[in-house]
Each structure stands twice: as C-alpha cells, then as structure tokens.
Fold this sequence. Notes:
The complex is a heterodimer of chains A (111) and B (114).
Chain A lengths: L2 E4 L4 E4 L4 E3 L1 E4 L5 E7 L5 E7 L5 E4 L2 E4 L9 E3 L8 E9 L3 E4 L3 E6 L1
Chain B lengths: L3 E4 L2 E4 L5 E7 L5 E7 L5 E7 L6 E2 L6 E3 L9 E3 L8 E8 L9 E2 L3 E5 L1
Parallel strand pairs in B: 2-11
Antiparallel strand pairs in B: 1-3, 3-8, 4-5, 4-9, 5-6, 7-8, 9-10, 9-11
Amino acid sequence: GNSVTQMEGPVTLSEEAFLTINCTYTATGYPSLFWYVQYPGEGLQLLLKATKADDKGSNKGFEATYRKETTSFHLEKGSVQVSDSAVYFCALGNTGNQFYFGTGTSLTVIP
Amino acid sequence: DGGITQSPKYLFRKEGQNVTLSCEQNLNHDAMYWYRQDPGQGLRLIYYSQIVNDFQKGDIAEGYSVSREKKESFPLTVTSAQKNPTAFYLCASSIWGQVPEPQHFGDGTRLSIL
C-alpha cells in the first residue's frame, strides 16, 4: 500500500540553525512526493515537489531530494528564521491522484 | 487571483442538525477533495470528485455527504449521523492527470458543536 511516515515533533530550533525533518514512504508504482507547510488557522501551501527519483525540489531555501533507494524525502534548510515556524507535512501522490499525508511536524524557531 | 474559497471560516452545529460547508474554486481544476484534520493528526480523506456529477468515498465518508453539480463547487454536508464532527475541514483541488499534480488548499472551516 501507500503511506508516509514523518518524524514526530515538536521541533524547536534557534534562529539560523540547520533544519532536517525526516520523511519516509512506502508506495506502489512511481509516486510524486511533496512537502506542504501550514500556518496557524490556514490551509496547506505547497512548499516543494519532486516527481521522480533523484529529483531535488527547492523553494524559499528549503530542499528535499527524492531518494528511491532509501524511500525518503527529507526536508532541509540551512538557516531557519522565526517566520519558518509552522507545521510541515510530507505527502505522496500516486496513480489516480490519490494523496497520502504524514501526520505533520510542528516547527518553532526562537530568536 | 485564482484560488479556493471555503466558507464559513467558523461554524457551529447543534445536536441533530445538518450543516453544509462551502468550497468554490476558480482554478479550472477537474478534481476536488475534502479532508478532515484533527489536532496532532494528518489529513484524512472524506470524499473526492474527479469530474462533475461523480464522486467517490474516501477513508472516513460515514456521516458526510457531497455533491458536484458544477466544476467550480464541491459542498460538504456534515449530517447528524456524524457523532464527532468537531474538526478542521479542508477543501482542495488539483489537475487530474497521469502524473499526480499538487493539490491546492483553501483556508479551511473550523466546525464545533454547540
């Protein structure tokens, strides 16, 4: 079947620290992978995506590489800011446009 | 700007009452989805629709109903049969194609019991 597992939070970092949020998946076929961000009281916003193995998605300083050999799509950012505080969701999209979301990782960045 | 509009932002339901959550999109997307989000949990799929006049049950459809009479609109009704409706409801839409396209989300409706 299809599923996404991401590291549990909450994660608290100091400003300018390095961020990694782990995400692993199980899937049939050739899924696309996504990271979404959710700010309090809002819907999810697409942060980045990758559609095939070894693709690297990037946006706003965030990066994630689609690793088929380790079935992973870890989110990284070299220097976080207070404004990055949010909940981050890893997601998998598969045949039939079926999406599977992780449980979300809450990030708080302190000045 | 194109996007998805959900209304109302907050909704209160009395016991035994049905309530309807609105979702409208002007992105010309074929597919639309309803998710339920509970605190500390991921998104759970309630219903989805690929085309007008067709929709499919998701993982937690019991106690909910939908309609898709227009491409732009996908309202969700929370019926009295849904015994634990308090949650944050998210509507999404996407292009329907062979390669999964990103889903675009509205800002959600928070439903509470009076």
